[in-house]
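Morning!

This is the sequence you dropped in the shared folder:
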Amino acid sequence: QVQLVESGGDLVQPGGSLRLSCAASSGVFIVYHIGWYRQTPGKQRDMVATITNSGTPTYADSVKGRFSISRDNAKSTVYLQMNSLKPEDTGVYYCWAGLFSQNYWGQGTQVTVSS
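The structure's back. Tokens below.
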């Protein structure tokens, strides 16, 4: 069982930056693929960025060049650096950890981009 706790969500103006953090309880964090998904009311949860257990990142087209995902295995933590934020980046951001058939989710953190 892996518990994930997100932090860092906030209200920010367009063009601003935020860094989300997700701390995992698992001592074997290093084996998991991890990432961030975003959900808005009435819509499905979409992938924003993921990073494999070997460190390879993948980004949604809408955030390429603006967001950066990283992981610190020593701290069992994954980060999402979000720059040049747009109103369409608004949503609840969920941390995910997965390996084979195992999938774990955090409770989410709200990001609102508005002037």
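Headline: The chain is about 0% helix and 50% strand.

More detail when I'm at my desk.
O.
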